[in-house]
Amino acid sequence: MRVLGVDPGLTRCGLGVVDVARDRRATLVGVGVVGTSADEPLDARLLVIARSIDEWLDRYEPEVVAVERVFSQLNVSTVMGVAQASGIVIAAAARRGIPVALHTPSEVKAAVTGSGRADKAAVTRMVTKILRLEASPRPADAADALALALAHAWRGAAPGSPSAVGRTTAMTASALTPAQRLWAEAESKARRKT
Amino acid sequence: MRVLGVDPGLTRCGLGVVDVARDRRATLVGVGVVGTSADEPLDARLLVIARSIDEWLDRYEPEVVAVERVFSQLNVSTVMGVAQASGIVIAAAARRGIPVALHTPSEVKAAVTGSGRADKAAVTRMVTKILRLEASPRPADAADALALALAHAWRGAAPGSPSAVGRTTAMTASALTPAQRLWAEAESKARRKT
């Protein structure tokens, strides 16, 4: 499954593409950040984001686009730009018939680190490990976009879907990265609760 | 000058096109509301808005798009959708090289009614009068979009631009609608202050 993760923003919009195999092994396909300057007018900034997302969708042809769910509780001076950018990203995917999934930051953190309250450094560290990268993706927005994509791909095999259950139990702990192990454990716990 | 005014929103997005002559006389070209249901997924809703704005830009070829400036002080449950819709509208105009102007609700109210604190009914009444319509545009979002377009067109002749000053003084009071008269007075006051 190929997922494009997008951490929307006006100043920095993180974009990350991963391929995730049935055994949950994830591979980096592309990562980047689209930056626009606050000195530019809003329409020019949103146009840069619109063109970039189109380019990424055309180049990588993801099966799903995972976008960070925006909360109005954020810093009021940045939240409007984040929401405007996310609207453009979601509409661009919808135009191509690509499904869009929204995930909260805490869902993403929990998926890749095992804790919904992990800090940015911990997320970056786990993304680097999961994707077997030699260097950490920078800036944090790029790592966040990859984390979003990973979280979505792994959620695809969420507790409740029979195939996911079968797959999880068939995996041996040693074949898993630490994050995958945490995730598998979290899944088992969740299954026990339901 | 042809202006497309947009009152962005997810549930109701108001769209209004006016032609404004050099003497400030304004004519209705098109008005409508794009509605999406809260039962639909977000990507489907934003896609409807994206397609509609493209259609309006193609059909009416406005010289400027005037969009309501979104404030995060709005109701938190609706502000994100409003911002997402506005991002799509702004990017759509920017893609076509059409300039985008943002106006606050109070600027718009002041321009069409003479008071920045006018209520929705007063705005609708003045829009109906200014455009010499037989019936008021409904719902309020449609009237708001027209008010935005009018406010922008009239602002084009704002205090400070020499041509505007010449034009305002050359007009006789009897040739003006009540709103235009109020606006001309507001302009004079503003000029005196600066």
From TrEMBL, chains A, B:
Gene behind this protein: ruvC
Family to which this protein belongs: Belongs to the RuvC family.
Keyword Glycosyltransferase on entry: no
Cofactor binding note from Swiss-Prot or TrEMBL: Binds 2 Mg(2+) ion per subunit.
Binding annotation for Mg(2+) 1: D7, D141
Gene3D superfamilies named in the record: Ribonuclease H-like superfamily/Ribonuclease H
CDD domains: RuvC (cd16962)
Binding site for Mg(2+) 2: E68
UniProt organism field: Sinomonas humi
Alphabetical keyword list: Cytoplasm, DNA damage, DNA recombination, DNA repair, DNA-binding, Endonuclease, Hydrolase, Magnesium, Metal-binding, Nuclease
Protein name: Crossover junction endodeoxyribonuclease RuvC
Assembly: Homodimer which binds Holliday junction (HJ) DNA. The HJ becomes 2-fold symmetrical on binding to RuvC with unstacked arms; it has a different conformation from HJ DNA in complex with RuvA. In the full resolvosome a probable DNA-RuvA(4)-RuvB(12)-RuvC(2) complex forms which resolves the HJ.
EC class name: hydrolase
Nuclease recorded as keyword: yes
Gene Ontology terms, MF aspect: crossover junction DNA endonuclease activity; DNA binding; magnesium ion binding
GO cellular component: cytoplasm; Holliday junction resolvase complex
Predominant subcellular localization, coarse grouping: cytoplasm
The protein's Enzyme Commission number: 3.1.21.10
Physiological role: The RuvA-RuvB-RuvC complex processes Holliday junction (HJ) DNA during genetic recombination and DNA repair. Endonuclease that resolves HJ intermediates. Cleaves cruciform DNA by making single-stranded nicks across the HJ at symmetrical positions within the homologous arms, yielding a 5'-phosphate and a 3'-hydroxyl group; requires a central core of homology in the junction. The consensus cleavage sequence is 5'-(A/T)TT(C/G)-3'. Cleavage occurs on the 3'-side of the TT dinucleotide at the point of strand exchange.
